[in-house]
Design goal:
MetI-like fold; two-stranded antiparallel sheet; 74% helix
């Protein structure tokens, strides 16, 4: 009995620093944020915030800029989740085959993930503005010469998706590689003997066996797509401008950047905090729903 108490005390002593840090850094600021979102807080020293209730939330939902940013974020997230997972799974199939230099390919595909978002954004800005038009000029392809991925508000979002996919697909690939290497080769060999082709083996054996990997990769790509900020700052800084229901808006100002600009650029801290709370709730609901759906599909498979 004394040994159990001693082990329990040691356990809580080791856990205490992390637990206290989590409470102080995450839990307490979160509830303080809920309070401040219902005030006219500006973060200016010496000015006591006044209680305004749900006014900040009402203003948020009536804001065309917020609604536009919300829609664009969902579009960016949906396309990014699909593109990253398709590219990553393709890479994973490639580097798990018996081909020469497969370890070199693994390292090459993964390296972009090691590049910081700001640096990566500046690299792709140079590619979009200088490299692609130059290649179009050399090859005589007018489409590439006139491709304005950073100037056309209808295309800029796809430029962001391309850069983000290039950065993140290598990381997701490693998860798929680990899952593919755990697929029993006996099942694949038996299916070949029975006459199954590549697609039949893929849909009936490989996909069900790596279903858990789909849950993890979908969750990671969903969360990171929703929170994307640094690549946008370096690549477009929220621009170019566009018209939405007669209002001028920034075509690539996704939710994370929109909240930052409201809070720090325009010094409307309380409004920014209210939008951050809604952002957190939406992201929580969407991510939990995605994990629940994928887990259910795992059982069905």
């Amino acid at each position: 009995m004394k040994k159990q108490k001693k082990d329990s005390l040691v356990f809580w002593l080791f856990l205490a620093p992390a637990l206290i840090s989590f409470v102080v850094v995450v839990i307490v600021p979160f509830f303080m944020g809920i309070y401040y979102s219902m005030t006219d807080w500006t973060a200016v020293a010496g000015i006591t915030p006044n209680w305004v209730g749900l006014d900040n939330y009402k203003d948020m939902f009536s804001s065309l800029e917020f609604r536009y940013s919300f829609i664009r974020t969902f579009i960016f997230t949906l396309i990014s989740v699909i593109s990253i997972n398709v590219v990553a799974l393709t890479f994973a199939f490639l580097v798990t085959r018996e081909i020469r230099f497969k370890n070199f390919y693994r390292a090459g595909f993964f390296i972009p993930n090691l590049i910081g978002g700001l640096v990566l954004g500046y690299i792709w800005q140079f590619i979009f503005k200088s490299v692609i038009p130059a290649i179009g000029g050399l090859l005589g392809i007018n489409f590439l010469k006139e491709l304005l991925l950073l100037s056309d508000p209808n295309l800029t979002l796809f430029g962001l998706i391309l850069a983000f996919t290039w950065q993140y697909a290598g990381y997701i690939m490693m998860i798929y590689v680990a899952a593919l290497l755990n697929v029993p080769q006996e099942l694949l060999e038996a299916s070949e003997i029975d006459g199954a082709n590549f697609w039949q083996k893929l849909w009936n054996i490989t996909v069900p066996m790596i279903a858990q990997a789909f849950t993890i990769t979908s969750f990671l790509t969903l969360i990171n797509s929703f929170k994307q900020y640094d690549i946008i700052v370096a690549l477009t800084n929220g621009g170019p401008t566009d018209l939405y229901q007669g209002t001028v808006v920034n075509s690539t100002e996704l939710l994370a950047m929109h909240i930052y600009n409201i809070a720090f650029k325009y010094n409307r801290m309380a409004e920014g905090q209210a939008r951050a709370i809604i952002f957190f709730l939406v992201l929580s609901v969407v991510s939990i729903g995605q994990v629940y759906y994928n887990k259910k599909k795992e059982v069905e498979m």
